[in-house]
Amino acid sequence: MHKVYLANSDTAFDVSEGETILAAAQRQGLNLPFGCQSGTCGACRAQVTQGRVETLGEPPALSPAEREAGFTLSCLARPMGEVHLDLHLPGAFATLRPQLWPARVIGKCWLAHDVIGLSLRLPQSERPLRWLAGQYLDVLTDDGARRSFSIANASGSELIELHLRVVPGGRFANWVAHDMPLRTILRFEAPLGAFFIRGDTRRPMVFMAGGTGLAPLRAMLQECVQRGETRPMTLFWGARAQRDLYCDAELRELSERCPSLRYVPVLSEPDADWHGARGWVHEEVLRQVPDIAGHELYMSGPPPMIEAGKRAFTEAGLDPARMYYDSFEYAYRTFPVANAP
Ligand SMILES: Cc1cc2nc3c(=O)[nH]c(=O)nc-3n(C[C@H](O)[C@H](O)[C@H](O)COP(=O)(O)OP(=O)(O)OC[C@H]3O[C@@H](n4cnc5c(N)ncnc54)[C@H](O)[C@@H]3O)c2cc1C
Ligand code: FES
């Protein structure tokens, strides 16, 4: 039996021999962030500040730089003695336990040729769903599968907005786009994940999205604007062509309203009349923010973009502890922990 202490809290818990840190935390009713439970998504990333852990295998979610900086994945880590972990979580996280929720689909529209927007109305409740901007939900489908989608708006509303990419062969998104009637009730688990703004520094923030990776960043930016954030913020949004920039007008308007926000769309296959930035979005970030090491970085979108970003920004000197991300992995088998309300 080994003791694990969590930084910036009074929480300590026991981990049995052979047990992972996440499994032990869940067994004892603690709310630690997680996703895939298989080393792929990085949602359970934690920094070992004292002691040693054994991380099973070579999980893809941990880059060499993250390993070097002492990060592990609690879903695969076993303590080798007493361990102190820093999860880099705000105090509010502990109170936001994932639960099962029903919600009615009250709006559905094509935002771009392959992106559908959904609006879900939450049930009236004395304890309404709250989330940290950037978190996601898992829709539970009738056949027992799960599909993860980021919540695209800030908390505090009775509506949840989602941006779903509709790809050929994508089962859930195609059903939503072509067959699901309005007023359908969807069931989901929320709030999930550890992708949200850390307010503990005054560093300027860079946001980098690829495609529908914009969804959680849109929620974060809405929240920043609502609370009058004064830290400089730059949003880089990578897409193929102009028709993929499905929130372009809204983001331009937001950046005009908020003097500390700059918005840079970046196209990898630009139209002939495009005068903006072109190429890979992470390369444009480094072109425009060569001092990235002094920033805090939030990125979300396709796994190859996240991998490329992690590599490039680490080489440019950014501490992995200042890099937060949600990698939009395709559906994997996840394991529910929620208790129905
Ligand atoms: C934390 C998290 C948050 C996410 N947030 C969002 C979000 O806000 N919006 C969003 O659109 N997606 C998001 N995703 C990705 C989404 O969960 C997956 O793409 C999911 O598989 C889509 O379900 P589906 O049933 O439509 O497709 P599936 O039936 O699961 O996919 C079938 C096949 O289609 C291909 N495929 C599926 N999705 C994609 C894709 N996006 N790009 C290219 N090929 C694909 C794959 O080959 C896959 O095997 C998120 C993923 C994670 C882990
Ligand atoms: S990497 Fe641990 S939960 Fe996904």
Question: Could you explain how this protein is built, in words?
Answer:
Residues 2-93 form the 2Fe-2S ferredoxin-type domain. InterPro entries: 2Fe-2S_ferredoxin-like_sf, 2Fe-2S_ferredoxin-type, 2Fe2S_fd_BS, Beta-grasp_dom_sf, Cbr1-like_FAD-bd_dom, FAD-bd_FR_type, Flavoprot_Pyr_Nucl_cyt_Rdtase, FNR_nucleotide-bd. Residues 98-198 form the FAD-binding FR-type domain. This is 2Fe-2S iron-sulfur cluster-binding protein. It holds the Pfam family FAD_binding_6. The protein is α/β, with parallel strands linked by helices. The chain folds into three domains: 2-89, Beta-grasp domain (Ubiquitin-like (UB roll)), CATH 3.10.20; 94-192, Translation factors (Elongation Factor Tu (Ef-tu), domain 3, Beta Barrel); 205-327, 3-Layer(aba) Sandwich (Rossmann fold), CATH 3.40.50. The protein is 19% helix and 31% strand. The protein contains seven helices and 19 strands. A six-stranded antiparallel beta sheet has the order 11-10-13-8-9-12, with helices on one face. Strands 17-16-15-14-18-19 form a six-stranded parallel beta sheet, with helices on both faces. Strand 14 (205-210), helix 4 (214-226) and strand 15 form a beta-alpha-beta unit. The longest helix has 13 residues, at 214-226. It is globular and about 60 Å long. FE2/S2 (inorganic) cluster is lined by residues 34-37, 39-44, 61, 73, 75. The site of FE2/S2 (inorganic) cluster (FES) has 13 residues, from loops.
SSE inventory with pairings:
Blueprint: E1 2-6, E2 12-15, H1 21-27, E3 45-50, E4 53-55, H2 64-68, E5 71-73, E6 77-79, E7 83-86, E8 99-112, E9 115-121, E10 136-140, E11 146-150, E12 159-165, H3 171-178, E13 185-192, E14 205-210, H4 214-226, E15 233-239, H5 248-257, E16 261-267, E17 277-278, H6 281-288, E18 296-301, H7 303-315, E19 323-327
Parallel strand pairs: 1-7, 14-15, 14-18, 15-16, 16-17, 18-19
Antiparallel strand pairs: 1-2, 3-5, 3-7, 4-6, 8-9, 8-13, 9-12, 10-11, 10-13
Helix pairs in contact: 6-7
The site of FE2/S2 (inorganic) cluster has 13 residues, from loops.
Domain FAD-binding FR-type: 98-198
Domain 2Fe-2S ferredoxin-type: 2-93
Cofactor: [2Fe-2S] cluster
